[in-house]
Amino acid sequence: MNVYLLKDIEKVGIAGEIVKVSEGYAMNFVIPRKLGVEVTKENEGFYKNKQKTVEHRKDVIESKTSMLAERIKTLRVTLKKKSHDDGKLYGAINAQDVVEALAEKGVSISKNQVDFGKSIKEKGEYKVTIKLSSKLQPQVTVVVTPA
Q1: What's this model's pTM, rounded to 2 decimal places?
Q2: For 99-115, what is each residue's pLDDT tens digit?
């Protein structure tokens, strides 16, 4: 069954795409949750035109996102936290700390886009992944120093 997606669905497609999914998945999940609508012969032309405009918009957004990814790759942020004498921090570095540090550098992201490989609990230099899209995931260098 062909479905026009109204919202992004992970591992299926992004909003504005026409995707082929199983009938059960469409009827039981996608359509009832208003994540997409069925594409029939009557409305196929309408959704194909709509898909073209969305694709153009996606290209513009993708170019802006790739420029942001290149900027993030070159950034190096320093976080000062209280620590013990042996270098261990009193509290772990969280996503909000990274978001605020990037905001000071002029990069606006949300904290659910920040992905730590493992939690940061000691001073040192770390690579933190920023999920801009499923394909673009640049890493920013985070330096943790004692305050």
Answers
A1: 0.63
A2: 999 999 998 999 899 99
Task: Indicate the SS3 state at residue 62.
Answer: helix
Indicate the fold that domain 75-146 takes in CATH. Answer: Ribosomal Protein L9; domain 2 (3.10.430)
Rounded CA gap, 132 and 109, in Å? 8
Query: Cβ(32)–Cβ(11) under 8 Å?
Result: no
> In the block, which residue shows the tokens 């013990």?
84
Residue-wise pLDDT tens digits, 10-51: 889 888 889 999 999 999 999 999 999 999 999 888 888 888
Report DSSP letters for 67-129, one per residue. Answer: HHHHHHHH-EEEEEE-B-TTSEEEEEE-HHHHHHHHHHTT----GGGEE-SS-EEESEEEEEE
Q: What is the DSSP letter of 35?
A: S
